[in-house]
Amino acid sequence: MEINRYIDHTVLKPTTTLEDIKKLCMECVEYDFAAVCVPPLYVKLAKQFLASTNSKVATVIGFPFGYSAIEAKVAETVLAIVDEVDELDVVINISAIKNNDWEYLEKEIANLMYIIREKKKVIKVIIESGILTDEEIVKCCQLYAKYGVDFVKTSTGYAEKGASVHAVQLMRANLPAEIQIKASGGIRTFAFAKELVEAGATRIGASASVAIVNESKA
């Protein structure tokens, strides 16, 4: 298993510096990761660092809690696209799920998909599976499958629980084959990353990416 090609090499801490981004991108080139995932502020810089590579640049929208207004998420998305982002990891409104307000969630994704599809970008919808019930996870899969998102993603890494094999298996069982799964949140070892891939994940979000790859070769 070439685990490097599954990985979105990630730095999203609030204190992220220019040097952090430079290091992230240099590691991405060295290890040939699928993508880097960076704060919106650094999309342009990451694009410059990775210009001559096959690696993609992703950023986050509505991060990390997802409860910003639809209009705010649309604005963030437009700005990221202007900065030439390749992939958008969008946190859905978790409060709306807990309020059982699926009409709001449908309106949110409809507004975002219109822009993202028009500009031919990739969308990964973060549902924060660690704090959802199985029923809520299944409902999310049904809603986002209806809108044809590219990925459903488990977690931000900021909730009390991140990725789990159970969540990935449940998502895989309730999504069409063409919709991929990104597992993220608390993935620090090759063994866990491998379990998640075997459960159905096609992308892994991690900040411990280098250690994971080195462990895979050991």
Describe the structure.
The structure is a single chain. The protein is of the alpha/beta class and 218 residues long. It has a single domain, classed as Aldolase class I (TIM Barrel, Alpha-Beta Barrel), CATH 3.20.20.70. The protein contains nine helices and eight strands. Strands 1-2-3-4-5-6-7-8 form an eight-stranded parallel beta barrel, surrounded by six helices.
Keywords:
EC 4.1.2.4; single chain; DeoC_typeI; DeoC; globular; 9 helices; 8-stranded parallel β-barrel; 218 residues; 17% strand
Compute the average pLDDT: 98
Shape designation: globular
Round the Cα radius of gyration to an integer and report it: 16 Å
Number of helices: 9
CATH fourth-tier homologous superfamily: Aldolase class I
Which architecture per CATH? Alpha-Beta Barrel
Topology order in helix (H) and strand (E) letters: EHEHEHEHHEHEHEHEH
Q: How far apart lie the N and C ends?
A: 13 Å
DSSP summary, beta strand count: 8
What's the story with the biggest beta sheet?
Answer: 8 strands, parallel, barrel
The CATH topology is what?
Answer: TIM Barrel
Number of domains: 1
Q: Structural class, from helix and strand content?
A: alpha/beta
Low-confidence stretches: none
GO cellular component, one term: cytoplasm
Protein name: Deoxyribose-phosphate aldolase
Active site: 89, 153, 182
Function: Catalyzes a reversible aldol reaction between acetaldehyde and D-glyceraldehyde 3-phosphate to generate 2-deoxy-D-ribose 5-phosphate.
